[in-house]
Amino acid sequence: MRSEEEVIRAMDCHADTVKRLCMLHLKNAADTEDIFQTVFLKYALSSVVFESQAHERAWLIRVTLNACRDLIKSFFRSHSAPLDEARQLAAEVPSEPRGAPQRPPAWPCPQYAIKKKVLHVQHLLFYDLKTRRNLQIRASSPAASGAPQRYGDSPPRRAPGTPRGRWAYPRRCSG
After folding, report:
1. Own/partner long-range contacts of 47-51 (Cβ < 8 Å, ≥24 apart)
2. Which long-range contacts (CB under 8 A, 24 or more apart) does 3-7 make?
3. Other CB atoms closer than 10 Å to residue 60's CB: what's the count?
4. Per the omega criterion (within 30 degrees of 0), is the bond before 142 cis?
5. What does pTM read for this prediction?
6. Average pLDDT over residues 9-37
7. Cβ pair 50, 56 in contact under 8 A
8. Do 60 and 10 meet the contact criterion of CB atoms below 8 Å apart?
9. 111-122 average pLDDT score
């Protein structure tokens, strides 16, 4: 634990740096003050022996950045909104009549039926075009014309029991 004079000296030397880092990361004055107090409380309770002013400054910067990241990742910060924003959102929401609840539309609604029919027609057109293309490709293939296939038209098959990469035909010798 450090003496009060040491903490005051560190605050005089490094307060500006810590506040700037906090404002840069948090962009909120209240959170900056909280982190500032947390960092210098950790400094006061720490038993780390610093080799120089630069070492002390680097330690304070690292503790500040870690505290800012912890606050940003905290559950409360990620699941809450400032009160001003909540009031604005409440003002924008139209008020609903306080009578009997409105009856939902009959299901399936006519818009859904139209969409379903359009999707069905689009589906049929797509598969019709796909089938036509496949038939044209098959009709233009050499196998469909009855012409004999040459040896180089398709890759050779693997012999049963041979590992992948070795083919059934023997390798040609160079020479």
Report:
1. 47/1
2. 7/40, 7/43, 7/44
3. 23
4. no
5. 0.48
6. 93
7. yes
8. yes
9. 58
The identity of residue 19, as a single letter, is: K
Which residues, 6+ apart, have CB-to-CB distance to 116 below 8 Å?
Answer: 108
Burial (CB < 10 A; 0-12, 13-18, 19+), residue 40, is: buried
Q: Which residues contact 70 (CB under 8 A, 6 or more apart)?
A: none
Mean pLDDT, rounded, of the chain: 75
Q: Which residue has the tokens 């070795």?
A: 166
How does DSSP assign 24-43, residue by residue?
HHH--HHHHHHHHHHHHHHH
- How many residues in the chain? 175
Taking only Cα atoms into account, the Rg of the chain, rounded to an integer number of angstroms, comes to 37
